[in-house]
Write a structure and sequence with these properties.
Shape: globular
Order of helices and strands: HHHHH
Strand content: under 5%
Number of strands: 0
Helix content: 25-40%
Largest sheet: none
Number of helices: 5
Radius of gyration: 18 Å
Structural class: mainly alpha
Length: 140
């Protein structure tokens, strides 16, 4: 008689999952997160210039560093479509790790129009199209 390993998809996790355990230590996700966290210490991007909703109306905003890291990681992994980025936040463990297990929708990860006044700084950055997107992202 054949013995199979039990497969119970209804079993919930008994403790919160540490996403870093699922991502190898040499994965690009760790490098991207560390690089974006380091950006604050150099003059490429001034995170103080991102537009913040001070009125408190509307949905909460995603942190600009997380959104910048998400776009850089997805672009480096060959995921360019905003809908595919949204789908990857549910399916790809590296993307889930970078996004801190948050799931910005496809409207949140699209490029704002030039009329929205979105920009990060007067200096050029290595990824200008990715870095200029962070200023008006809102959580749904």
């Amino acid at each position: 008689m054949t013995k199979f390993v039990p497969c119970d998809r209804e079993q919930p996790f008994l403790v919160p999952v540490d996403m870093s355990d699922w991502v190898p230590s040499d994965d690009l996700a760790h490098f991207v997160i560390e690089a974006v966290d380091h950006v604050d210490h150099v003059d490429h991007v001034d995170f103080q210039r991102f537009r913040v909703n001070e009125r408190g109306t509307g949905s909460a905003q995603y942190e600009p560093r997380m959104m910048l890291a998400l776009l850089i990681y997805c672009y480096a992994s060959g995921i360019f479509s905003s809908r595919r980025i949204e789908r990857a936040t549910y399916r790809d463990i590296g993307v889930r790790f970078v996004a801190a297990n948050l799931h910005p929708d496809h409207d949140t990860t699209t490029t704002p129009s030039p009329s929205s006044g979105a920009r990060t700084s007067t200096t050029s950055t290595p990824w200008p199209s990715a870095s200029c997107r962070c200023c008006c992202w809102r959580a749904k």
